[in-house]
Amino acid sequence: MDMKETQLWVNDYLDLYLYAGSIGDTSWQQEILEKLHDFYDEIKHSITNIKI
């Protein structure tokens, strides 16, 4: 996934998080946060394994 796709993916999930909050679905919000956190961990792991 390139930088542009990553930004779009994160923005989409943040929009979903806000929508879930607006309809009062806190369990869905928690699910979204977990996906964002997992994705962050994946990105962080990828960056730390880059050899220069």
TrEMBL record:
Name assigned to this protein: Uncharacterized protein
Superkingdom of the organism of origin: Bacteria
